[in-house]
Amino acid sequence: MNEEYDVIVLGTGLTECILSGIMSVNGKKVLHMDRNPYYGGESASITPLDDLYKRFKIPGAPPASMGRGRDWNVDLIPKFLMANGLMGLFEKRRFRKFLVYVANFDEKDPRTFEGIDPKKTAMREVYKKFDLGQDVIDFTGHALALYRTDDYLDQPCCETINRIKLYSESLARYGKSPYLYPLYGLGELPQGFARLSAIYGGTYMLNKPIEEIIVQNGKVIGVKSEGEVARCKQLICDPSYVKDRVEKVGQVIRVICILSHPIKNTNDANSCQIIIPQNQVNRKSDIYVCMISSAHNVAAQGKYIAIVSTTVETKEPEKEIRPALELLEPIEQKFVSISDLLVPKDLGTESQIFISRTYDATTHFETTCDDIKDIYKRMTGSEFDFEEMKRKKNDIYGED
């Protein structure tokens, strides 16, 4: 381990594993370590079911009605992926007209603007142009464009229109949902990117205690583990490894619920995402529900896993998510957790220590992707180019 690396990565959350893979593909010499013996960090998949009961200190063993414990792979922080990067069709003609406008919109073709300046016209004015009501606006902004607040309403409309367009194109790709979810849970994703890193020369070490991050003259120079020092030029890590360099900006409550039935009024769907917009429940933050099932090889046959999450706003977090829990009744077993939202205190450009953010309450990967692209830009000084990454892979392995 007494070697010098371009990048050392601490933690095997999805953010860290993706960045490890990207840096390896870019030709960097990468060492990736985690104090845990498993992949996934705080977003790990827990199996068997007995381990979930132990993790949340639920007394006793899971009842026989839960099926075989090894049939369960429960994600602690589930997130859906947009299929191209749920709700039924509205009958209102003006909303359909709006969707047609979005589908035809091309920011490079002024003929598609219909009198709207995408760089200057606020999204609020676009909604007004199509005479959309508040309920439709809430749905469009929070469930389609995936905004967490209403700040976007007074911003230029171009980004919002493109977000809605992405949703529509993703929905069209498979017909029932714009989202993807991996079989056996999200735990497969970090391992996939770890393998990508290894293919390009990355070195992985699990179950490796981290004794010290060594900094000289304000800049990281290495990591000490079990008496040995690995030197590096840059460090990527999750907040748990550098508690003195992060700050708490809030909390998230998550409740994992085991059900024996699909969620009501979802046409017996074996998976779905429900977003309750903040305005609908007099809150500042949306409430998220995601449900998956045995169809994804994450639960025993006939069982469903629903996870409710939101940003904590009061001293009684469980009361805040009651509107969502009522949608899920009856609930066989609940697992409640409240975790801190941690963000880096600085950009890391001086210390060359780049820290990811803890996962927020959303049930999609949009904010996680934003964090990955932001860290990449701070590390390299350039925007992440996915097409360039594909070209590098094809140079070695040829076209897919």
Automatic annotation (TrEMBL):
Belongs to the Rab GDI family. The keyword Membrane applies. One of its GO terms (biological process) is small GTPase-mediated signal transduction. Keywords: Acetylation, Cytoplasm, Golgi apparatus, GTPase activation, Membrane, Phosphoprotein. InterPro entries: FAD/NAD-bd_sf (IPR036188), GDP_dissociation_inhibitor (IPR018203), RabGDI (IPR000806). Interacts with RHOH. Interacts with the GDP-bound inactive forms of RAB3A, RAB3B, RAB3C, RAB5A, RAB5B, RAB5C, RAB8A, RAB8B, RAB10, RAB12, RAB35, and RAB43; binds RAB3D to a lesser extent. Interacts with DZIP1; this interaction negatively regulates the interaction of GDI2 with GDP-bound RAB8A. This is Rab GDP dissociation inhibitor. GO terms for cellular component: Golgi apparatus; membrane. It is a peripheral membrane protein. The gene is GDI2. One of its GO terms (molecular function) is GTPase activator activity. It comes from the Eukaryota. Regulates the GDP/GTP exchange reaction of most RAB proteins by inhibiting the dissociation of GDP from them, and the subsequent binding of GTP. GDP-dissociation inhibitor preventing the GDP to GTP exchange of most Rab proteins. By keeping these small GTPases in their inactive GDP-bound form regulates intracellular membrane trafficking. Negatively regulates protein transport to the cilium and ciliogenesis through the inhibition of RAB8A. It is found in: Cytoplasm; Golgi apparatus, trans-Golgi network; Membrane. The keyword Acetylation applies.
